[in-house]
Structure formats: C-alpha cells, structure tokens
Amino acid sequence: MFLPIVFLLINNRHFAESYISDSCSNVRQTYSKIMDNSENSNHVPYSLQPGGICGEAKGCCSPEMERSFSKKVKKDFSSTSKAYFDHVYHTVKSRSEHFQMSIERYILHNARISLQSCSLLHSNTTQLPLSTTTNLHLDNHKQQVMNVYGNVTHYFNQVYENKDVNIRRLVKTFVKESLSVRKKLKSTTCVNEVADNLEAALNAAWLIKENLKFGRSLFGSIRQWRIANSCVDALVEMKYCSLCNPNLVYQFTKPCSKYCLNVQKGCLAPVLQISSRVTEWSRLLQSLLQDLQNDKSLQRSVSELNHLIHSTLISDSVDDICGHEAYVFKDPWKLTLEYHLKRLSEELQLLEHVFDTLPYQLCDKIQDAQPGSENHCWNGTAMSTYNCHIADSGLYPPNPTQRVMGDPMLSQQEARLKEMIAMLYESVGIAPSPTPQIDMTLEDMCWDPPPRLPDYSTQDGDNMSDKRDHDMEPAPLNPSSSSSSSSSSCSALNL
Predict the structure, then answer these.
(1) For residue 255, what are the β-bridge partners?
(2) What is the 3-state secondary structure (H, E, C) of 104-144?
(3) Can you give the pTM of this predicted structure?
(4) Residue 221 Cα distances to 214, 404, 420, angstroms
(5) CB 3.0 to 4.6 Å from 219: which of 39, 89, 171, 390, for a disulfide?
(6) What is the pLDDT of residues 330-371, one digit of tens each?
(7) What is the C-alpha separation between 401 and 406, in angstroms, rounded?
C-alpha cells in the first residue's frame, strides 16, 4: 500500500516538473536573452516553489531567477543614476574651484595695482611729503600694502569660527603706520566705511566659498549612495515579474506610468528628500551672489581699498585722506571675475529641482522601449490599470509600491545642509518659508484595492514613511514655484 503511494507522488512530481518546463519554454528563452545567457538557456533553474518577489504572479520564475533579476536591476539603476550624479558633482566641483581661484586672483591682482601705484607715487616726489621720499619709506609702504592684501586673502580663506583677522583694525593700522599716527583714528573718517564695506564683501564671498565646498561634499555623498533592498524588490516586480506569466508576451508588458513613477520615487526617496532643500539652498546662494555683485560688491570694496591706500600715501594727515577725489584704477581682471560670477549664477540655477526630474527620465526610458496603452499596462501583478496617485517626493510622503527607507549618510548631509541654509537666510536677510504639511496617508493613495501594498511587518529597520517628522520636510524658498511645478507634472500625466 505504501509503495504505490510513493510511486504515485514521484510520478506526479515528474509530471509537474515536465509541465512547468514545457509551459515555461518561452519564459526560459526570454530570460536567457535578458540575462545575456543564451548559451545556457537549457540550464535555467526552475522550482515548484515560486519566487518571493513575484510569488503573486504564480508563474515560471524561481528564486534563482529572481536573484538574477535583482542583480540586473541594481546594476542598471546604479549605472544610470551614477552618470546623472557624477555630472552634478563635477559641475559643483568645477564651479567651487573656479570661484575660489577667481577671488584669490582678483585680490592678488589688486595688490599688484596698489604696489604699482605706490611706486609711481614715490617716483614723483612732488606729490608726497618729504619724509616719505626715501627708498626706505618706499619699501615700508610696499610691505604695508602687501600685509594688507595678504591678510585680506587670509580672511577669505580661513575658517569662520577661528577668524583672527579684524578688517577694520587692519585698515586702521595701515593708515596709522603710513602716516606715523599714534592716537586713535576718529570714527568720522572714511576709513571705517571702507573697512566695513570690505568686510561685508569678504564675508559674503567667504560664505559662498564655504557653501560650494560643502556642495562638493554633499553631491559626493550622493554619488556613493546605494539603493535599499526594498527598492530592488520593487524594481524587479515592475520590470521582470510580468515575465513569469507564460500567458503574457513580455515585450508588450509595459509598466503603467504612475506605477513606474511611484517605484522610482520610492527608490530615490533619500535623494529626493535632499533635492527640495538643494533648491532652497541654490536660490539663497544666488541671492547672496547678487549681493556680492551689488550691495556687497567685492569689486567696489576692493577699489575703495585701493583708493584709500592711494589717498593715504599722498596725505599729510588723517584729516586729508577723505578729501581726495576717487582715483581711477585700471582693473583688467574685473571682467574675468564678473564672468566667473555669472557662470556660477547660471550653474546654481541648474541645481534647482536638480533630481526631481530623474524619476521621469528613468520611466521615459522604460516606456520608450516598451510602448503600450496606459489603460492596459503592467501594474505589478497583472495587465490592467494602476489605480493609485503619484506619490510626493521625499522620505515622509507615503508610497504604495515599497517601504521607503532613509540613508544615514544622506541624513547627516541633510542636517548639515539645513545649517548652511540657516546661515544663508541670516546673511541675505530673508525669512524662511513655512514647511508644508503632509496630509495624504497610505490608505488615501489608491481608490481601488492597490496592486500590492508593501508589507512593513516582515521587513527590518525603521519605517521612514510612518515618521511624521514635518520639521525635517524641506520647504522651497518660494512656495508658489513648488506648487506650480507639481501641478504641471500632474497635468502632464492626466492625474
């Protein structure tokens, strides 16, 4: 009695395996082409147990095949996103280096202008007091000018918390030493005004330099970021689970556009969380850059310093310094500095919403390769419609396709980014915009039973989607621009 039962079970198993092998032959061939494994198409692993990711498809995919799918989607996603991230990083790196170099060279060139002016004045003794016509005084004046500009460069380059150069004291010391004045200078002189304007311009230039330096660190960290396992599963479900169904032609199982966007937004959530703050940061830097060219003009303040040095060298006393007409200095490097500042402003504009278009680009690439109808598309489990809204960007809005996970490295960078933004708000004198609240819940995302809600109870780690930390959600500098951009995206997708 026992032997016939065992024989029957063995035969049934052999029959099942033979049936699976025959019905899944097209799947095996397509799988081999996708995985570039055509020479081993007859050795594609099959199992009576369906895979864990595409289990609901109840088709021909085994756990071994799903592992191959996972490796491929990680490789494809990383290669596409890395090229995008690398471009942004190298753009910020280049602008950062050019900005610091252009400021340092501008200060150095103006130091040379002042030294040449000093030499010309000493060559014409009729314009100078008799006590300053000797070579000894010429060398002293040159050394004083070099000290002024050397300390100005040092002030621009040093760490803000450890600034040991006082610009007002520096300028006053030059005037007192040049005119051999021992008493304190009166506050009514033009010396304080020149010093204050120079300090404001240098502080603005320093803050821009430090923010660009931080930008290199920020985008460098994004280059090193890797997607979470929940994202890998969602990508496999979107791109390859339709292959498991032998009744579907894989080439025509295009994912629904809203479904694709939700998957890509969930995968890019840690980066998109920073993207909105990068937009705010970029706009504030542009505002400060405008100040550096207008109210806190570095060119004007350095020109005023040169005029003060010139006036000091031709004056007999402190009272005579402010009475001289402005001396016109030839500044051949002014246009070069203006060019670099303009280029920097243009590059900063490109950083606005820098990563927000990436999910759309990734989905466009998929949809172009697999054209189909939005009313009959792959929604993760079947060829039908996708009855869910498009999720908002970031870590905290709900996403119906996957469990959104934060990244510790990017979280630290976001905290530092918030500090830099606070410093920029204080510098430009603009009040921060209020943070928008998140009203949508996961249950409100879909109006019919969703294709598959993410199972939070079976995954490790914290559920970042359930953390309603609205204080961490960034706000754009101009709230109206955010709403207009989001509405245009929705209209384009017929939401």
Answers:
(1) 378
(2) HHHHHHHHHHHHHHHHHHHHCHHHCCHHHCCHHHHHHHHHH
(3) 0.75
(4) 11, 19, 16
(5) 89
(6) 776 777 888 888 889 999 998 989 899 899 988 887 765 555
(7) 16
